[in-house]
Amino acid sequence: MRGYELTIYDKAARPVWGIGLRLAAFCAFTCLAGIAQRLPVGTIPPGNRLMIIEAHHDDHTWQWGFGGLAARMTDQGYEGILVRVSNDEKDGDDGYPHNDMVNLRECKAAVAHIGIDSVISLNWRNDYMDSTPLQELRAQLILLIRKYRPDVLMAYDPWGHYDRNPDHRKVSRAVAEAYWMAGYANVHPEHLRLGLKPHRVPHIYFTQRGDYGKGHEPNVAVAHDASHVRRKANAMVAHRNIYHQPQTARSIRDELRKQGLHVPELDGLSDGEAIDQIEKWYMYWSSERYGRENGLDYAEVFYQRAEWDHRPGLTEYVKNNAVSQ
Ligand SMILES: [Zn+2]
């Protein structure tokens, strides 16, 4: 499948211009973010379990998601758990209860494509999380971290530039506090009486929406392959309640038709098939873009930290002096 190379043709089959406001916005973002130099290429850390904690059912998707990384890690034996913090009641046109149920169901179907078979929903009210007590949310996340003891945690970046989505801000801050506080026995000792033990997550990957604020500052690129891109594209279109919008494809093609243009790859497809195809192209385009910028075929970029990165002197000492027992 072709990715970002999708080209729109006029009647004489001459290439005219590349598709999409979103692609243009993404180009602008990458320029603003200064992704001109290659990032270090990250390796998959050792471990058995990854946990994605995200505000919404679909935050693992798009070019700022974790789909390729998660698919690669589950291929290598990782078990995956996704925590949906909100109830997604505002995502969809059929009322709050319906949206909650359908979005959760589609979230489970989506992450199955990238090898994750466990979804936990905390069901805080979508877009109204400002009034959610941070300490309460943090306590829930600490409990989950202690229960499932992930080796890798993925979330939105709490230290990134302003994210206008209030749920993203709330959840990312709670995650950043929970992932290290879960390691201290004096924090929520009531959890220990349940038989849980402290657990500090060794590795974290943070990302951020590229179309909000001034963008993200990644420090690592992680490669994935064509099968991972295909699976994360399938994961994205599985969110049909919000992304399957045939009228969008229809309006795009109507507008092109007025200008005497068409996209050959979409000819013969229904509007529903066309919008699914467009969404999949977008996932290929973003993976290829990050890959090309970092000398890889396909990639995602993250702000990645390991447990001892905050003590670089100790990390260096252990690296140079540790010996086998
Ligand atoms: Zn979101």
Please tag this protein with its features.
about 325 residues; alpha/beta; Rossmann fold; 7-stranded mixed beta sheet; 3-stranded antiparallel beta sheet; 10 helices; disordered N terminus; binds zinc ion
Outline the structure in words.
The chain has 325 residues and is of the alpha/beta class. It has a single domain, classed as Rossmann fold (3-Layer(aba) Sandwich), CATH 3.40.50.10320. 40% of the residues lie in helices and 18% in strands. The protein is built from ten helices and ten strands. It has a seven-stranded mixed sheet, with helices on both faces. A three-stranded antiparallel sheet has the order 2-1-9. Strand 1 and strand 2 form a beta hairpin. Helix 4 packs across helix 5. It is globular. The protein starts with 6 loop residues before the first strand and ends with a helix. The structure holds zinc ion (ZN). The site of zinc ion has 5 residues, from loops.
Shape: globular
Counted by DSSP, the helix tally is 10
Classified in CATH, the superfamily is LmbE-like
Assess the beta-strand content as a share of residues: 15-25%
Number of domains: 1
- The assigned structural class equals alpha/beta
Provide the succession of SSEs.
EEHEHEHEHEHEEHHHEHEH
Number of strands: 10
CATH class: Alpha Beta
| Unreliable residue stretches | 1-7, 13-21
Average pLDDT over all residues: 89
